[in-house]
Design goal:
single chain; 190 residues; alpha+beta; Nucleoside Triphosphate Pyrophosphohydrolase; 4-stranded mixed sheet; 3-stranded antiparallel sheet; 3 helices
Length: 190
């Protein structure tokens, strides 16, 4: 057991080494690989790893202090989920210029445009993908027109920050990256 609160992931006693990689699925959205790794305990194991575009998530806050969130059906979960607007980066968008994708996604999914943007942080949303997600705060909002993707069926809901955890506890908000984004917002909220 390690007892140092100053230990970073770079100093972790747990590591591994990639020794093999084979593609098992290739689509327009994702590529899946079987990767063989040797773990720090000497065991060799195959893992399925998904390669998909990086993406952005936006915490939009209106002039009254409410979050602009979206209800969206999630086929994998067979239900709707209340989330912050988010989406994958387009081929011309990278993590270095991800605010461009954030502005596009906010407009597409909510119809809002923001004057002020603040980068809040970056997460790896799940352990089985190489994706990274940039989190942005968007404020000074103006409502315009949405531009949904053909696969999106979205409804807007304004949520007061004091109600966020209640919505998590009752199962409305189940999206891990939305919960992480709220934590970043809470850390930087003044």
């Amino acid at each position: 057991m390690t007892n140092s609160s100053n230990l970073s992931w770079k100093d972790s006693p747990k590591s591994g080494q990639l020794i093999g990689k084979k593609i098992i699925l290739e689509t327009n959205w994702i590529n899946a690989f079987t990767e063989t790794h040797i773990l720090s305990n000497g065991i060799t194991h195959d893992f399925t790893i998904i390669h998909a575009p990086d993406w952005v998530i936006i915490v939009p806050v209106d002039r009254d202090g409410f979050f602009i969130m979206i209800w969206q059906y999630r086929p994998a979960w067979h239900r709707a989920s209340l989330e912050f607007p988010a989406g994958r980066l387009e081929p011309n968008e990278t993590l270095e210029n991800s605010v461009i994708g954030a502005k596009r996604e906010l407009r597409e999914e909510s119809g809002y445009r923001a004057t002020n943007w603040k980068y809040l942080g970056r997460i790896n949303p799940v352990t089985w993908t190489v994706q990274q997600t940039d989190i942005f705060l968007a404020s000074d909002l103006e409502l315009g027109e949405t531009d949904f993707d053909p696969t999106e069926d979205i409804e807007i809901e304004k949520v007061h920050p004091d109600m966020f955890w209640e919505k998590v506890e009752r199962g409305d908000i189940i999206d891990g990256p939305s919960i992480a984004s709220y934590s970043f917002w809470k850390k930087y909220h003044v």
